[in-house]
């Protein structure tokens, strides 16, 4: 892989107009409650971005920027106007923007590989589960969003990254600047506490998320956690959500680690250090585990390949995959037994939800379980019921809803996303091999972590990782050429 590092050119007018109109429509809808206009603007703006002929990396950046500023626009607009109508619907603006991008471009030339075929099967099973029961419309939409958003982002990223007009170094630079902004604002809000967050509409944002019980004059419990037995306050920044923010910053950091985006090692090391500090300020255990495993697994793979010459990469991959799952379980159990804290809920959810899945392997119906159901369905607020239907575990909440076959297909999609990066590794440079191995293990790590955390498949968490997983064409093509 040859990499040419150039300075990022200015932003095209089409890009600025698309983002500004989406921002403006979302903000005005937050003040008035008129969400249909914001939805329409988001779809049209996303579709129009497909007209970019250069700097195609800006298409991916637009999705990330909208996810970062979505809650800020909703919170500030609703807070200034005293509005609480239509806010839940506004949280779907990034989904509709992404749908506009997908329909306007990648859908026309979609890659009919095993990932696409498996996804269509997953979608069919999800919709078929409605025959066995269903939750509220809001919970159904929330879960369909999580089951479709990751695929659209992957297709958008793959279709654009294979073009010669896609500059991954420019994308990394802009992501680093965005990360610095997020961390800077996050530190200010962390020091300002609830009063600073209240001024930018945190109460309105959590009402939009369905957390109607937030009547206290203080930060929600998710802003507090324990780290090795010590109570900590977590940074939420413009995401208004520490767990999701941790996932985003780790994804940004992996972009900076995997690709050569600057000629200055000082800039590189300093940038990575700043983003790593931001990750630690979120105190996101799941995000830190994703980072640690993404760096550790490729090293284990290379060591085993050196020792076991008779095994090919795919055989080693399967072994390391099982090893990673075991390490996550052992470490999580050790942490729970030693320090306790909120980790206990995750183990309770895994045990009780798994029993319910086995009792009804075809599923209980879309929107009937998990955190979305607890927030949006009537009568789902009981803690025991919430945990036993998949609260705090994304993969098992899907299993509760769409059954064993559904979570099996979802897992296969992510395994296939990883295995495709193992092809012809020996033909790549050492640096490209290391990045491909990280991409190979990343989807497996995400599936494993989704057993322990509900947030993993939400758009604000998963988007940056699906973009990473689509970077295979960038790693395998000479600079300035399009991938076949």
List strands and helices in order, with pairings.
Blueprint: H1 13-32, H2 35-49, H3 57-81, H4 87-90, H5 93-104, H6 114-128, H7 137-161, H8 168-199, H9 202-208, E1 224-227, E2 230-233, H10 242-258, H11 265-282, H12 285-307, H13 313-339, H14 343-359, H15 370-376, H16 383-388, H17 394-419, H18 430-452, H19 459-469, H20 472-476
Helix pairs in contact: 1-2, 1-3, 2-5, 3-5, 3-8, 3-9, 3-19, 5-7, 6-7, 6-17, 7-15, 7-19, 8-10, 8-11, 10-11, 10-12, 10-19, 12-13, 12-18, 13-18, 14-17, 17-18
List the defining traits of the structure above:
20 helices; mainly alpha; globular; two-stranded antiparallel sheet; 484 residues; 69% helix
Approximate shape:
globular
Counting DSSP H or I runs of 4 or more residues, the number of helices is: 20
Helix share bin: 55-70%
Major pleated sheet = 2 strands, antiparallel
What is the alpha-carbon Rg in Å? 21 Å
Distance between the termini: 15 Å
Order of helices and strands: HHHHHHHHHEEHHHHHHHHHHH
How much β-strand is present in the residues?
under 5%
Oligomer: single chain
Q: In order across it, which strands form the biggest sheet?
A: 1-2
Question: Which structural category fits the helices and strands?
Answer: mainly alpha
Please report the total strand number as a whole number: 2
Query: What is the overall pLDDT average?
Result: 89
Sequence stretches where pLDDT stays below 50 over 5 or more residues: none
